[in-house]
Predict the 3D structure of the following.
Amino acid sequence: MHDNIHLVVFLSRAMPLRRWDKMGILDREVAIYKRMLPKLGMVTIVTSGGDDELLFQDRLGDIKILHNHWGLSPNLYSLLAPILHAKTLRHADVYKNNQPDGSWTAIIASKLFHKPLIARAGYLWAELHRTNGGRGIKAMVIDWLQRVLFKNASQIILTTATMKQHIVEKYSVLPQKITVVPNYVDSSQFHPRPEIKPECGRICFVGRLHPVKNLDLLIQAIAQFSQASLFIIGDGPQREELESLVKKLNAPVRFMGIIPQGQIAIELNRSNLFILPSDSEGHPKALIEAMTAGTAVIGTNVIGIKEIIEHNQTGWLCSPDSASIHDAIQHLLSNPDLQKQLAKAARTYAIQNYSLTHIAAQEEQIIIHLVDQTR
């Protein structure tokens, strides 16, 4: 047993626990660390949030919290945290960042205290920034920071093989330094509920309301149906614009805002279909949660989605345009037997590949092996 390993996880610069909670994902994000805690021995989370972060201690259980009780700005705190928390960080065994944004905190700590660093990226920050229209000096700085992270890491965890290939080619990182560990899903929460009957024509989207998600195209497609309705779960910068579009098209769409994970699982069971019409994705958790819940899924044939959905086997792929989205919805709504077939296959695939138990075991082995090498 390796029950004396102390893992320190550095949260992103502007993503403290309270924001995770506001987004409804706090319990989901800390689930893997709760699962690994008995095997490792100690887990500490470093967060840029203030004293109110301690309000979440009960929900984190035995996971320790190091927070910004000096009231510093997130940027300044991200630079000074290794020094401010030196007493704890010096005696830890291994560090891990949660996402590339703000990972310099972990890099600085790793250099100061000579600890191994696991660089984790659920998305590629530089590539996402460019996809969202980022250009100029900021884009160059983000790309440089991402390069520094991967070059200084002892091990790298990425969520897809496509990301791994990109990093190897772009930054000349050794392939053996990278392990592909996909996002996980808690199958005890996301599962079919026989007592809940799907509502005819009900379609569900879960995610951030952002242009990259192509929700305007989805709304345009839904507006053409008389016997279908779309339930949008989540929030984001595009909400007001999308609400105006719904009103203009008189589309059957309901905005549900941010709701707890448990309620999302119920909403998925109430739906005939889940759809993710994005331009690109990293490794979308909402998609694998829908698959695990036993809901038939539609996704666009783009990077991050096509690696998860096998067309006409575990889901349905379409092009990122309103006509193709409309045709995919129409095809599945008119074929209930196909819906059931895809939903069943999707759940089997998700359980085999993305279960919390399976993914936690993978990360445990990476951490234990790295610490054993260091010691």
